[in-house]
Amino acid sequence: MQDNNTGLQEPVKKRTIRSFVVRGGRMTEGQQKNYDANWEVYGLELADGRIDYQNVFGRKSDVVIEVGFGMGASLAEMAKNAPDKDFIGIEVHPPGVAKLMMLAKEEDITNLRVYCDDAIEVMANCLPQKQASAFQLFFPDPWHKKKHNKRRIVQPLFAQQVANVLKEGGYFHMATDWQPYAEHMMEVMEAQEQYENAAGKGLYHPRPEWRPLTKFEQRGERLGHGVWDLIYKTIGL
Questions:
Q1: What is the pTM of this model?
Q2: Which of 36, 52, 86, 141 is catalytic?
Q3: Which residues, in sequence order, are CB contacts of 233 under 8 Å at separation 6+?
Q4: Helices and strands (H and E) in the chain: how many
Q5: Residue positions in the annotated binding site?
Q6: Catalytic (active site) residue 117
Q7: Least confidently predicted of 21-30, 188-197, 219-228
Q8: Does residue 159 sit within a domain?
């Protein structure tokens, strides 16, 4: 493609598989100010490559990774309630990243960092291998239509990518409010040799106390909607 201002050819961007679909990513002026003001403290850059958790947080600790944290309230609450652990959130939606960093600053949360990038690229290029204690994926897009099921993030390859960043005995914790997706998650995960179901083969896990109830989830409970948690532990092969 030619740049009409310079006459130079723009590089053609290679299409890659992504773990998300961007919806309404434009930030308000206030969100942009929060983003810019807090990024130096909380932000991690994809371009910086492989990180070292101890260098990032200044200590050795259990590290929890969360993909797709939305507007960040749940992740901020978890980080605040577990000061002995360190948390890394990965979210492609800039307003959500801005909101999480604002919450972290307001609550003086220091054990939290964030990527505003695609999780697949961050996992492949930035996260240390076999070191994280837990990986969280709460209420991902269920892609309700059957023809779109292949777009669901929980697939065999993704399960393997998660296992690559978890240490032996680390946990992959998923939650969804869409029963067909819960069944899909179960089918995918039960077939993975590098995991075992923490609740027992073929069983869903009660919501653990460390996963806060979101406002959306609380509303769903009042309406009688179900939520399914799945927790799988990595095992040595």
A1: 0.86
A2: 141
A3: 169, 170, 171, 172, 195, 196, 198
A4: 8, 8
A5: 66, 91, 118, 141, 145, 177, 214-217
A6: no
A7: 21-30
A8: yes
Pull the structure tokens for residue 89. 């959130």
Q: Rounded mean pLDDT of 60-67?
A: 98
pLDDT tens per residue across span 143-180: 788 888 888 999 999 999 999 999 999 999 999 989 99
User: Which residues constitute the domain of residue 57?
Assistant: 29-234
d(CA 112, CA 94): 16
Break the chain down into helix, strand, coil percent, rounded to 5: 35, 20, 45
Residue 11 domain-assigned (yes or no): no
Residue 182 lies in a domain: yes
For residue 34, the model assigns a pLDDT of: 84
Q: In the chain, how many domains are there?
A: 1
pLDDT in tens, 24-52: 457 888 888 889 999 999 999 999 999 99
Binding residues for substrate: 145, 177, 214-217
CATH number of residue 229's parent domain: 3.40.50.150
Residue 13 lies in a domain: no
